[in-house]
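Morning F.,

Quick status update on the modeling queue. The single chain you submitted on Monday has been processed. Sequence for confirmation:
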Amino acid sequence: MKTIILIILLSSLLGFKPLNQECAKIDIFFLIDMSSSVQGNEKFIGQALESFVDRFDLADDGIRLSITTFSYKSKLLLPLAGDEKQARIIIDDIKHYIAANNTDLYSGMYTVVEELALKSREDVMRIIIVISDGDIDSPQSSMDIINKAHELYDFNICSIFINGDNGNRSFMKEISTNGCYSESSYENLYRMLKELDICI
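Structure tokens below.
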């Protein structure tokens, strides 16, 4: 009992919310905008992902993580797994990533849904975390694939809208699960991911 109380107290002091039993097994899919609007902010994305991974003990029988980026095409950088060491290697690479033109969220969502269909567990929570300014190519096509995926699979979408001059806030809100939309700058993204409630 004393050990449990100590864990809860430490979690509270560090700003972490102890996971309830239902949230102890989750498949988490990051879908990250790495288009030209991100240029110069790649390190902030890497730091934010580090702050997120620091919160959990990744494990194949517990919390698993996947990372996909999108610009002119999508790239599955980290296949879904509970491999913390590999996750940190990929995240460190993202800090030195070179952003590219175009914002093909459709391709990115297709990659994520394919990974979800092939590797995700049916008996656990599944969350897609989208980080973007929402200024994407073909928003209607992207919305169509999201709606189709919802018909086939059970998952939530948490969107983090990056404030910018050309952003599409309404699109990011539209794709989000109720209660799972937030806004941030790149500089404060680490704080957002450190506090994001994945038990939705």
